[in-house]
């Protein structure tokens, strides 16, 4: 965790909060849609911070690109005048809505706070400080190895574990998928034929760890297209195919509904 | 709580945006803005999925977020078709005026 990552997190978080508020307070529907597009870009930035590179791109392509184009298309097609929008003036209803949602927020936030073990966090922070100090005394060659041991064992502290630890943990799991040694009890991977482990096509196999180098930060696989596609065509193949059916039925349904009269 | 983002930061941020979306659904009566609020809700849930997924070292949350996006795309298409239909019937987008299904 350097200096820039927290900075960008706070920029994206504040931007997402402000533009989300803008979505619900603007009177003009067009401004709301534009604020929502800005919001989606901030979300994509947060996904990048969480190493979800593929989803960040998809977020921009699908949400900011496709869905919002449909929204803007409808808004401009209807070309609403003020009296057609049909907003109420301010009333007690709004106050009650905001207050009850505030209560909801505190309930969710309290629940989220409770899952973090305070003592473990404190202990982890102290340990991380000790190990950082030890690392500072080492020369550069051993740096990454020490980093693996540092922040990854802090429970509840760093959502962003350093890339090296992330890679080693993730790669071990990927190897398990590939060898078929992950048992169904883990809920991770279930081969179609229990007798024979699933053979991954060579194009989907991850490169050998040595080919990437000791510091896989630049060629990290986590959150990129390859492992996600491995999951989608193995464990989640049925929902993946059902998504295709869903999209097809949505297209047909949208056309039938939007048609003035079905003959 | 420190300056550095941890899992809890992402969770609280997602909760805040979820609540903003809920307020939008409760206080606005414009059908299009209601659907935009629903998109906000879906996005905040996606953020939670991805934060937990990174926290747990695996990609299952990413897959779920992927499916949520697919469902959101399908929902947007159907919802906007319905909006178009409602506009033709009531000459407006106030969801309070759409009560014909009750009878």
Task: Provide structural commentary.
By secondary structure, chain A is an all-alpha fold. Chain A is built from eleven helices and no strands. In chain A, α2 runs antiparallel to α3. Chain B contains three helices and no strands. In chain B, α1 packs antiparallel against α2 (31-55) and α2 (31-55) packs antiparallel against α3 (60-90). At the A-B interface, α1, α2, α3, α4 and α5 of A face α1, α2 and α3 of B.
Features:
heterodimer; A: 263 residues; mainly alpha; B: 103 residues; 3 helices
SSE topology sketch:
The complex is a heterodimer of chains A (263) and B (103).
Chain A: H1 4-25, H2 29-49, H3 53-78, H4 82-85, H5 92-114, H6 118-137, H7 143-150, H8 163-179, H9 209-212, H10 225-233, H11 237-258
Chain B: H1 7-27, H2 31-55, H3 60-90
Helix pairs in contact in B: 1-2, 2-3
Concise overview:
The complex is a heterodimer of chains A (263) and B (103). Chain A is mostly helical and 263 residues long. Chain A has helices at residues 4-25, 29-49, 53-78, 82-85, 92-114, 118-137, 143-150, 163-179, 209-212, 225-233, 237-258.
The count of DSSP E runs of length 2 or more, i.e. the number of strands of chain A, is 0
Could you say which overall geometry of chain B the principal axes of the C-alpha atoms support? elongated
Cα distance spanning the termini of chain B: 54 Å
Strand content of chain A: under 5%
Largest sheet features of chain A = none
Shape of chain A: extended
Main sheet characteristics of chain B: none
Kindly provide the radius of gyration of chain A, computed on alpha-carbon positions and rounded to a whole number of angstroms: 24 Å
| Discrete helix count of chain A | 11
Strand content of chain B: under 5%
